[in-house]
């Protein structure tokens, strides 16, 4: 906040922020004729799209006072975008302008009365947020004066001609030292104590309480050759302090952190052990192959990683004075196809924190990710320490942006050291100084509760030159990428990138990804979109990553860059052949959300179908993006350790929400899961699935998210929680530390516990003990399967194929959930004869069946009978193998209400009622988390431990809410995960509004989520089944239909014929339930979009049905008129139209919404029906025109998805 005073004495409190799209109207209102003469005719939207930095100055009422726009190349076409440096250096050789330290002002507007103060405040802010910036140029026609405002901050340095027409332009410059100067750094003196103590006390009083009032003076007095204290001063007053020491515990750092990228922070030594003997031999053979391979070779080689290029580091250390090493470490700008695959597990390993900035740190997470493997080799460094450490640092907040000014001076104090390190508690917010440091990856065995940050002396270099790569750069690039997994492909592309140049498929990107969350697509030409294949960066220059990206855009005449991350293939070994090398810039890109796609009836649409670029479905990939606007926009770093236990739909939805927060960078997201991330495609796409689907996520969704790029994955089971030490204990004995623990383990099918009843005594169900609540503690038979995840299904499929189950042996499917039906259908589809499949259903726990629709159940029962599958009802498992050793199972005995029976068994599937896994329960119970049948939470997902949250079917609401019938199981898992993330984001995202406490009377109400609850799958008879319903307490369908306010149902087709389609319309004419049963596949994702729509939106569905105009709903929803309903942005159109009708467009008349309320409250006496009255008012007012215009704009803007609609101009 700053205060501006006008010449007339008026005062305004102002602040700067980044320009937003909604500012455009106000910016236009500030443009004067003089502005156009200075800057030319300007398209504001276009300028903001291409700007590197746009700053808006607002007062305390959020009224815009001024705006300035800055780009990294000059306006008025006085020099080429990629070659302006030489032109401007010729003007004045004393101005060392470079792309790193220079920006150009392309626009400045301000409220006239405060214009001078606004201009100075904006420039001060720009110099503050861009520390490398030293010069801002302003170019205007030579015949123009700058006016009374800009002349106060800019000085003319000369004239230059225009490239396109004969006219000279005046070049003016603004220097940093006039607005936010560099700080003067010197050795600290005892008399600085009084200046510095108030700064220290503002942040912390612990040092004073621990070491006494004069601890700082004593520290300054204690300086020697190993310990130094320095200060920064402004006008003779010390405003910052840094204490440095050359004594560093290298042994502790080597034990706790992967320091390979920096050669262990030691000088090279002949006795260094950098590789294990096995790696060394593999490495030598690969090096020989790389040297001998031809330039065009496409041979696939799986590279081994090794700790890091000491030769490169040594070269940089030796040549630091000449500033020549920086060029070798820069990124080569390349294009071309890559055909070498990459190990996806290594991609996952290096997905967070510092690992993104070099490609060699997967060792540090190896034992964490794959605990069953032996501990990886760790290098041994014999050389002397090359590092000193920062012991104490503090600076006045006003000057914090210049924190890096300390580094030149402190490195001069230790001329024999090349590294500066600092360790901080990991929850310390990332202040400006350490944003220039590299965060090191800790080993999984690290016990330190602090993070280590490293800065290399070479990071101070400023004479950085970025240019297009040539073949002469091959040796330098080869040295740079020698330890990367895809070094061979990088070198091949360096050789061929001019020939193999390929721009991104931008039509596909626009139609399949929400790229318009970040850009106005129409303001970017096709050739301005770039596809990034490789980005290799020496980690000592990590803090220049955004500068490199900015230069790639400038030199390549690009405005956008895209980087795809492909999923791994079905074999689980390599990435897709189209995969590129992992970019070290990933954390500086933003992940782009995929768009939900319409499933088009292409044959029915004919020539009105979308283009193939839109409708095609190639290999899915996760898209990452940056553009000119993002190059100078920082992300908020979150170092909190967020541990998610369980890869359920809730957990995945939670992680997805956090990952796609583009302005946040989560460094410590970790998933603990028995089988790692889902989406491995273990089962073929066309193959039947053993388990029913909740339609939250599928394999394609997992590929489009690429969570492995952002989330550390720990493969293991949680067996304990230490709440005091805040760590999770795994089944392997390892621990994972947490700050926030998220429990989303859900419920699983458990191994049933036989009652032990001897069927030879002809016992019935009433005579045997109830064992449903007992836990099976014996050895699980090898041919017994409980299917909970895709890995379980894959194991079952493997067993079936390896043991000839398709040709011989009986299969028992035990349970009464929908998964029993989908499993039976899968077995039939695999070739197992129906006569050898026995569906055994235990007594139901309630009167509600898993399908809850008699028509569907009858069709499925007939299909089972036709296939020869035998069904046994109300049967309870009594014994395996007649009570003998159950492994493997040869027979299974059951009791019933009448007489028992025994079945031979080659394979036993159990789908008894789901419950919380025993190990999970024991971990929760032993740590004293409140457990009452399920883990107890409040409405904000909290357990009785503030650091532990839980969600999903694992949980129940506390009894104080008196709503035991409602749990998270009643709602959509995807929505639960999203709401959990939204609740936690308030802890990390300063841009969100503070959470207000609910009123006392509302604190006892549980949240009611609105997303549809979905289940689907392929049932016996090859019926494709889908059921979509609102969240509700389970009730038999017949009871629901008997309610007076039930509404009506619309049914077409017959379940037995496989043409059944049922829609329930509630009393408010909204679609509340959809049930489909068809022998033909149908577009389930389309039908899901129908939920919650008004029946009139469905082309007056009820009226048409009553008039017998609809005989087949499947055909009805493939007609072209309804495709807009399935469009992902249709909900935005609805909101926009609702906003129009709720807004007051005419002063003398109420809005349509207000009229509706007045009619409802009987404030208006009507002579006609209310609907007719509203329709007449609507058509006679401006609202009709506004609604039509908005609808046509929607169709026109989305015409690439919706070309089947006509609009004015194409007819």
TrEMBL record:
Q: Which domain of life is it from?
A: Eukaryota
Cilia- and flagella-associated protein 61 N-terminal domain boundaries:
16-266
Which Pfam family, giving just one, matches this sequence? CFAP61_dimer
InterPro entries associated with the record: CFAP61, CFAP61_dimer, CFAP61_N, FAD/NAD-bd_sf
Q: What residue stretches are annotated with the CFAP61 dimerisation domain?
A: 1007-1125
Record field: transmembrane: none
Q: Where is this region: Disordered?
A: 277-305
Please list the residue ranges that the record marks as compositionally biased, kind Basic and acidic residues. Answer: 281-290
Question: Could you tell me what this protein is called?
Answer: Cilia and flagella associated protein 61
